[in-house]
From TrEMBL:
EC main group: hydrolase
InterPro entries given in the database record: IMPase (IPR033942), Inositol_monoP_metal-BS (IPR020583), Inositol_monophosphatase-like (IPR000760), Inositol_monophosphatase_CS (IPR020550), Inositol_monophosphatase_SuhB (IPR022337)
Gene3D superfamilies: 3.40.190.80, Fructose-1,6-Bisphosphatase, subunit A, domain 1
Name assigned to this protein: Inositol-1-monophosphatase
Catalytic activity as recorded in UniProt: a myo-inositol phosphate + H2O = myo-inositol + phosphate
Family: Belongs to the inositol monophosphatase superfamily.
Provenance organism: Sphingopyxis macrogoltabida
Annotated residues for binding of Mg(2+) 1: E70, D87, L89, D215
Assigned keywords, A-Z: Hydrolase, Magnesium, Metal-binding
Length: 263
């Protein structure tokens, strides 16, 4: 296993941000909590510090690339073809409530296609990473999607719409169609971890109907390099800005698309 300079820089940025998040987790009671769109959608100084850390590291590696961060939005770069896509703290609610399921997500998109991704779960010391053509990895171990071949055997991950999200009726319909057919459905509360778990076979699929580019971007290349399929939830070519994602094993992808058909 040989890491490229690109992946090495992304991993260094993720580790640095993760160290800061672990330190901030020890002083959660002192963090000021801000609301983006109601009490269910929060961020803190920890999010802001982590994004600043990631940005500093990535800009040192490639100062001409654009930067799209959850907290700071889009800063165009002189190189219009390349954009970093970053969620410095995916799973803020988990972070604030003591769950270890939160992650630093870093992706690089070239002309809208993700070519490298890192998802680092610092509280569990798990580092998922991939670069196009180089496979998907959990630390130094190469990973692959689940060998299960039927929906009935499958364990699925899902993003459940909370108070400020749309498509609640759609979600109810999906549950009605799928819960009688599958082994289990899980909600981790951090979409990038869901996608990483598809890549390493812990889940057979993950979908969400209202998801941001920075939540899914890193997972796109990790799942694909592990042998999975990533589309939007109607089966179309994935658009990071489109807001929906379905990552799955190839064997169950078509069946899931039928179950996710619009109400």
């Amino acid at each position: 296993m040989t890491m490229s300079p690109l992946i090495s820089a992304m991993i260094a940025a993720a580790h640095a941000a993760g160290e800061g998040l672990i330190a901030d987790r020890e002083r959660i009671a002192t963090l000021t909590i801000h609301s983006k769109a109601g009490a269910a959608d929060m961020f803190t100084e920890a999010d802001l510090r982590a994004e600043a850390t990631v940005r500093e590291h990535l800009m040192a590696h490639a100062p001409d690339y654009g930067f799209l961060g959850e907290e700071g939005g889009l800063t165009p770069g002189r190189d219009a073809d390349h954009v970093w896509v970053v969620d410095p703290l995916d799973g803020t609610t988990n972070f604030l409530t003591g769950s270890p399921l939160f992650a630093v997500n870093i992706a690089l998109a070239r002309q809208g296609d993700v070519i490298a991704g890192v998802t680092y779960v610092p509280a569990m010391n798990e580092l998922f990473w991939a670069e196009t053509g180089s496979g998907a990895w959990l630390g130094e171990k190469r990973i692959a999607i689940s060998p299960r071949t039927t929906i009935e055997e499958s364990v699925l991950g899902v993003g459940i719409p909370f108070a400020t999200k749309p498509d609640h009726d759609q979600f109810y319909a999906e549950m009605e169609r799928l819960t009688p057919r599958v082994t289990g459905i899980r909600r981790l509360g951090a979409g990038a971890i869901d996608m990483a778990w598809v890549a390493c076979g812990r889940h057979d699929a993950y979908w969400e109907q209202s998801v941001s580019a920075w939540d899914m971007a890193a997972g796109v290349v990790i799942v694909r390099e592990a042998g999975g399929v990533v589309t939007d939830t109607r089966g179309g070519e994935l658009d990071l800005m489109n807001g929906t994602v379905l990552a799955s094993t190839p064997a169950i992808h078509a069946g899931l698309l039928a179950a996710l058909a619009r109400v």
